[in-house]
């Protein structure tokens, strides 16, 4: 009898639970769980019901627009996100979602108009500058794209994306300095992604190009004190690369560069990247750091061999690299507008 009663109570509890009408917040959370699982159809179903209960919720509408985007129903995605752009409470994410949708629909002029509106509202948003720069790159406006990425670096120096795009841009020009500086800043801000591996290879190639580009045939179009100082210090230590650009020669070059830079220019041009390198030298990790960048990019098998032969040094550096928070502070922007 007791067992039968217990079963009856359990059934009653289940029926009651299913009979309860979840509120908008509960439905929204369920919808987000479906999104995390990649179940876009169920996410749309539940988020739509949540929106019926709370029609003005911008957070629900953002998630619904994003779900339509991932479902590749770009028309519904645009229909959902478009009204949000003009709302007073539209945040950066609204404009990011809208930008991705417009780009997916190849409505690039509408996207450009939207990004201009977004940056007028959020003039210090690194992500918006990065994405607007990407759009301009798609429109073959190379000057416009690098201008946006530079503005992103200047106004939001803690955001990694603009360093990535700007470094890639400069790597494919004859620029001697900013490709190397921005590229290395980026890999310290975003240290373990596919973009990091790409940037390491570009850094290695960038150092090779640094000593092979002939300034007489390809002179710099603009004068910049920071860049001139960087080039001068590199040149006065360039003899260590006479036998080729290797991890060992780069480690030696960059160590000597730091010593001379700190003597002559650190006070005038304080920079978080050089402070970071100096700390690595002082703590005996600079060799491991250069191995992590250049050997891993140039010869992965050789790098893996180095890690096995230098396990303690490798583990110490890896622990440090993963535990640090690398951000550039405001006031260390030295690249003037072109």
TrEMBL record:
Position of the signal peptide: 1-19
Pfam name, any one: TPR_6
Keywords: Signal, TPR repeat
SUPFAM superfamilies: TPR-like
PROSITE patterns xrefs: TPR
TPR repeats: from-to residues: 24-57, 92-125
Name recorded for this polypeptide: Uncharacterized protein
Organism encoding this protein: Lacibacter luteus
């Amino acid at each position: 009898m007791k067992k039968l009663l217990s079963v009856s109570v359990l059934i009653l509890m289940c029926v009651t639970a299913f009979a309860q009408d979840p509120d908008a917040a509960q439905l929204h959370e369920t919808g987000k769980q479906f999104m995390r699982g990649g179940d876009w159809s169920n996410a749309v179903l539940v988020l739509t019901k949540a929106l019926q209960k709370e029609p003005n919720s911008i957070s629900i509408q953002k998630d619904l627009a994003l779900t339509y985007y991932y479902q590749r129903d770009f028309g519904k995605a645009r229909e959902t996100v478009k009204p949000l752009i003009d709302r007073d409470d539209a945040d950066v994410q609204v404009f990011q979602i809208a930008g991705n949708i417009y780009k997916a629909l190849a409505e690039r002029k509408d996207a450009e108009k939207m990004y201009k509106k977004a940056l007028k509202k959020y003039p210090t948003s690194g992500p918006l500058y990065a994405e607007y720069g990407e759009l301009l790159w798609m429109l073959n406006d190379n000057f416009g794209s690098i201008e946006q990425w530079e503005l992103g670096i200047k106004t939001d120096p803690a955001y990694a994306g603009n360093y990535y795009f700007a470094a890639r841009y400069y790597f494919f020009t004859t620029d001697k300095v900013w490709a190397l500086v921005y590229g290395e800043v980026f890999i310290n801000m975003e240290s373990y992604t596919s973009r990091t591996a790409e940037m390491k290879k570009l850094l290695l190639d960038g150092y090779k190009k640094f000593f092979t580009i002939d300034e007489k045939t390809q002179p710099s179009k603009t004068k910049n004190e920071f860049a001139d100082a960087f080039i001068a210090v590199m040149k006065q230590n360039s003899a260590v690369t006479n036998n080729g650009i290797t991890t060992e020669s780069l480690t030696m070059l960059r160590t000597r560069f730091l010593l001379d830079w700190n003597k002559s220019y650190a006070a005038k041009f304080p920079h978080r990247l050089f402070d970071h390198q100096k700390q690595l030298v002082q703590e005996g990790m600079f060799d491991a750091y250069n191995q992590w960048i250049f050997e891993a990019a140039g010869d992965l098998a050789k790098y893996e061999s180095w890690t096995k032969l230098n396990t303690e040094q490798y583990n110490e550096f890896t622990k440090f690299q993963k535990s640090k928070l690398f951000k550039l502070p405001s006031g260390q922007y030295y690249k003037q507008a072109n």
